[in-house]
Design brief:
β2, α5 and β3 form a beta-alpha-beta unit. This protein folds into 3 domains: 36 residues, no CATH class; 152 residues, Collagenase (Catalytic Domain), CATH 3.40.390; 224 residues, Hemopexin. α2 crosses α3 and α5 packs across α6. The longest helix is centred in the first third of the chain and has 29 residues. The strands form 6 sheets. It has a 6-stranded mixed sheet, with helices on one face. The protein has 9 helices and 26 strands.
Amino acid sequence: MPYKQKQALTEETGMKCLLSLMVNFITLSAAFPPDRKDKNEENNQLAQAYLNQFYSLEIEGSHFVQSKNRSLFDGKLREMQAFFGLTVTGKLDSDTLAIMKVPRCGVPDVGQYGYTLPGWRKYSLTYRIMNYTPDMTPADVDEAIQKALQVWSKVTPLTFTRISKGVADIMIAFRTGVHGWCPRHFDGPLGVLGHAFPPGLGLGGDTHFDEDETWIAKDGEGFNLFLVAAHEFGHSLGLSHSNDQTALMFPNYISLDPSKYPLSQDDIDGIQSIYGSPPKVTTKPSGNSEPHACDPTLTFDAITTFRREVMFFKGRHLWRVYSDIAGAEFEFIDSFWPSLPADLQAAYESPRDELLVFKDENFWVIRGYSVLPGYPKSIHTLGFPRRVKKIDAAVCDHDTRKTFFFVGIWCWRYDEMAQAMDRGFPQRIIKCFPGIRLRVDAVFQHNGFLYFFHGSRQFEYDMKAKNITQVIKTNSWFLCNEPLNASFNVSVKGKANSIGTVILHHKRLSLLTFSIVHVLTKTYN
């Protein structure tokens, strides 16, 4: 074949190949446009970030395409779809993406905490507003926060008191992006609206709102602060997210009529499982019927520890003293337990994290903040003989898990593990506790010591040395610096100090130390 003819044929063949490649490229480009590929990648990154933040996916970067990570991704996606009531496919479909793009709370939906865990171990809580959003007037912010807290106080025994200085149980602030010591960050407009932390020290109870959002008090463009705050305060009180779309604790923002009551039955059931129902309306007694903490003649009906506090019962009232808070809280007994009578005679905390209280021949068992069903029961079911008609005092030694019951000059010992009275009892109190010669009105254990109360005096008792170490006024726990009556005399085995100032100053120093630690752990930028 001549050279020119061969060259022409070669050029023609090359041109056909080039045209074929161009056609194929155009066809492939039409089938997989660049913007679609970019969009898929964007959706995958959105889903991965969402599942990392709210479902504990914990995959870093864009490596979820690996088989192991892909399996984790699909599993968490199914979990998220099930939570929101979507069709569970494990695929990133349009309905799933739509949910992920809705503004919401920054608290994870899983892997954190639930309402089965204890909430605050007190009913009187404080809150403090650290700063204000420029979107609303300070008065509107104050009102929104107050109304949001009232949502929860209406269905529980909780009360909320605002403070302007110091550390509150619930510290409220408007923040942006990475803020202070907070481990959770905000992401700018839309996305996460706020977050809160469960009850506890440090950040516990604290609530933050994203300042990059537009906050409103009523109708308009933006997010209603009252609705978001009421949701976040649910977390501050110990609630987790609900998958009930009618619930305030549903994680996604739903614009409701703020004038309507926002709690669903699911919300009410959850919060009351922690704190119980609101107390019945009671009329506060007037005149001299209310006891005074610093009355030098003050006596108590019963005393017990309960978790991290000490409860002092008197008539219809009780004082609550905490190791980390100076002073005492004064409450009505029926504001905690409406079914309990006044004038209780004995109380103690069992190793099962239960509180047992006694009056006459009956006793009640309290778990958390609820009286267990089936109570009261007779004290004779514990093994007391029929001649015993009431208990004067009781205390459980948590080292031995033995409970001592005091009746007149006698004491019984009860084995909490065997749920039975120990053999060889009752014995005289003086034999069990040398030096304790008087009838016991109340008793509790604290830091390895027993504190026996008789009239307006208390005896600090060293259980190992088996002697009285100090005799002090009953109200020394309330920081009442009342001098001990010098004419009071007591016969003790071994050396007994009759000066109450030593333990009083010791308690003040201890309370001050705890308070400083509390402030340091709660302070943040």
